[in-house]
Structures are given as C-alpha cells and as structure tokens.
Amino acid sequence: xxxxxxxxxxxxxxxxxxxxxxxHSYEAYPGGILQWKQEGKPVxxxxxxxxxxxxxxxxxxxxxxxxxxxxxxxISPWFGIASAxxxxxxxxxxITGNCAAVNLLTKAPWNRANxxxxxxxxxxxxxxx
Length: 129
Fold this sequence. Notes:
single chain; about 130 residues; mainly alpha; 7 helices; elongated
C-alpha cells in the first residue's frame, strides 16, 4: 500500500519479475491509502519513531547549508566552503545513488532500533547492493 497505489503497483510488478508469482501472497491496493480512507476503512496511524531516512537527510543537509550560508554572510566568507561541501555531497549522491549523509544517519541512535530503515531507503533510491 502506498499513497495513491502507483508505487505499490510498480513494486508488485518488480516482485513478479523477480519470481514472486504467487498472486495470493500479495497485491497492490489500487487506490492506495487515499482511496482506502475515502471508503471508510480503518487506518492505524504510527506515531513516533524516526522520520524516513530521505527526510532526515534533507533536514540535516538543508540545515547545514542554511547555517553555513548565514555564517558566511555574517561572520566570514570562509564558511561558504562548508555550504559548498554539503552541495557537493548532494550532487555526488544524485550522480552515484549513494548518499554519505544517509549512511551516517543509519548509525544514529534513533535509527539503530530499525534495521530495515536503510533497506527501505535503498529500495526507494534503487541502489541496493
């Protein structure tokens, strides 16, 4: 199940392509969670726990760029190097599909309790080993 059903349908097709062809073991809900809720079906919200790794990375690197840019404007232009470094990291992650910030975030204490978190990120990014 995903938000609209599109990614779940894609995942189902990928699974079938990998040889998981038992139609009774899984299926994609066609309208996703949006349609599920519209139909009045029960939903259990998961409250707490870490944000998805991609959002953790966006918040971390975005905050770094903002802080270092402000420091470069108000303290010393040399802080601009740190902003450039963060930007280079994002560029490298986009080119290679491997994000150093995500690799570091998987080792954070709040993420260690969820060993499947990195696997879910790499599957979404399409760069699983």
